[in-house]
Amino acid sequence: MRSLPATVLRLVLGSFMVTAGVLHLTTQRQEFTAQVPEWFPVDDDLTVVGSGVAEIALGAGLVALPAKRRLFGGLLAVFFVVIFPGNIAQYVEGTDAFGLDTDRKRLARLFFQPVLVLAALAAGGWLRRSGSRGGSAS
């Protein structure tokens, strides 16, 4: 049996990702486009659409396919690592978006990214102790 906190984390994180992905494709598209670093070699809008689709797929998989939670949790953790250079660029370039309108706020965001990586790994069951696999909790 999976723990309630792990299940809640999986559902909340997955739902958050689906919502973020939908926002990439709809009402917040301009905000996300502003965050694409100038040096990134792919068209800004294509980058936003692609990352939005990826977020929807990863989040939906995490929510709807609990038997594949390790796969989707691991892929989501990798996704968070892959987009991290964009967060660094937002800080370095001083790009304002989503209320991140000061260097202090943009810097603080950088420290949140490892938390997202750990949350994805935890939601996928990657951080469980080896003794907790398959058995009942004591």
Index terms:
single chain; 5 helices; 138 residues; mainly alpha
Query: What best-fitting shape do the alpha-carbon axes yield?
Result: globular
Q: Could you give a short account of the major beta sheet?
A: none
Radius of gyration: 16 Å
SSE sequence, one letter per element: HHHHH
Question: What's this entry about, in short?
Answer:
By secondary structure, the protein is an all-alpha fold.
Descriptive overview:
- With 138 residues, this protein is mainly alpha-helical.
- The model is unreliable at 133-138 (pLDDT under 50).
- It has five helices and no strands.
- It has helices at residues 4-25, 29-34, 44-64, 69-93, 103-123.
Layout of secondary structure:
Layout: H1 4-25, H2 29-34, H3 44-64, H4 69-93, H5 103-123
Helix pairs in contact: 1-3, 1-5, 3-4, 4-5
